[in-house]
Amino acid sequence: MLSFLAVSLILVAINSIVAVGLNIQFGYAGMVNLMSITCFAIGGYTTMVLVLPPAGQAQDAYILGLNWPFPLGVLGGMVAAGLYGCIIGAAALRRVRAHYFAIVTFAVAEMTHQFIGNFKPLFNGPTGLSGLSFPFIDVVGFENYNYFYLGLCAGVLAVVCVFAEFLRRRPYGRVLRAIREDQDAVRAFGRDVFRLQLSAFAIGSVLAGLGGGLLVGFTGALDPSGWSSLETLALLTALILGGAGNNFGVLLGMFVVGGVITQGVTFLPSGWIPNTIQSPVEVMVYGALLIVILRFRPSGLIPEHTGVDRPERTVHPVVEPAGAEH
Amino acid sequence: MTVFLESFGFGLVTAGIIALGAVGLSLQISVTNVPNFAHGELLTFGAYGALVAQFVTNNLFVDALAGMLAASVTAFAMNRLILQSFIRIGTRRIYLLIVTAGLSLFLQNGLAVVFGQNDRVLALPSDASQAYRIGPFIWTKIDLLVMAAAVIAMVMLYMLLQHTRFGRAQRAVSDSADLARVSGVPVKRVINLTWAIVGCLAGLAGVAVAVTSGTVTPQLGSTVLLVVFAAAILGGIGKPYGALVAAVIIGIVTEVSAAYINASYKQIIAVGILVIAILFRPNGLFSSARETW
To answer: How many contacts, defined by CB atoms under 8 Å, are there between A and B?
Structure first.
């Protein structure tokens, strides 16, 4: 039981790392990025092909296979995810904003998912990759491996949170939030909005890649069914529930969504929710949560900290002044 | 050459289905200003509406009408109960998009809870897959019916938009709701009716997807959502006739390409068109410089 709890917490911690990245993109800079899970997957796959030995069996096909040590593999995964995010972000941010940006990222997520799922030579197509041995298992041993990995993920998460919080308090974080509120005004002040947005997008993508790398280290496998584009919406639900823009809110939201709801659906008294419909019920709850939160508490459980330099705030971040739009 | 022409024929069928979805989406965005990620679920509701109607009758025409009704009611309710309540409190458009994504998750999985996640088979008339050779094309009876339904729906929509008072009011609202309001157009009623019509079109599209594939799943709509978006955006938001042309282009390009390269990349090509359209022609193929939405 305790070990099972550790497994759940590992997954929550990994998803939180991705969510903190998404928070920098969406919560700070206001970019609705629906391909967060794609960068996560690219980080995971890249880590695997760097760490795994070359593809041997006739059934399997994947690129590289370099036998690198795990930490180096994760680093490679972060670079790959960051590069992919940069390419897509540069193309999209230069030309579109707001909902067009959301649609482009969603479209790219779908395309990437379909391509990786069908194109065998890259990451073994629909079968996906497997067979990664647990990193550091020979040092730690099987006995306490889950606890060790939980510690590792929690440590990485702590570093990531401190980093994100550091960014938020810097002028960099302030200018990102200014872009979120009114990017034309920021441009009028002479800031290079494109570069600032792209850098935030890249940071978020790198963090998503880091999450992917940590996930494959724990599961040892990754295939296309594990990262449908819908997972990004689950992350977004957690973000908005906890409070977009606030890193503590993100952690709380991720804990509620990833921990309480996911495990709650599984642990309800048997018969309340039949096994066959558990996953649709879970996703239904995400959808309903998104709608209810955005309607009744759009700033989330722990609203964004607005800072002392703006004590009186009359306009809610999510709400536009009356009459601005219909 | 025969391969090309045959796949061209399939492309026209696909185009009919995409057009039904995309013309509706384009109309809806033009009056509401929100890209609706739950539009795919309207198609799914149409398909399930037809499926439920099959408990009563196997008459495909009646089943299709039931599907359209189901989707229409869903669309109307979606707007009145959810979206309007957000618009009233002044939620930003970008958050409205997330709301529609949440709606999509909720409705799609709600259907999975009610009807189960497995494929449901839609009973078709026994001669449904009988093939007809018309000129260089080969179509089944279902294909012909789908194309006929699409053409009839488009002609009716054209009459409605161009030759009725509602059509004039609808175009006025999509140009500027404020100007329409001060000119005495009942904006609210126009928006409500638009959603109902959009639901009808989407429901018909969903039934068309179901009869051509033979199965109904909760994911039916969300798998074609991006293709429908591609047509709506390539055609130019708020230009239903542009969406029609774009649907024909996308339908033919995807089916013809599927005949020559691996068919599993069909979806990628359709979505690729969407990305290119947004990046290079965000106001559509037939755009003036004016930003539409």
So the answer is: 142
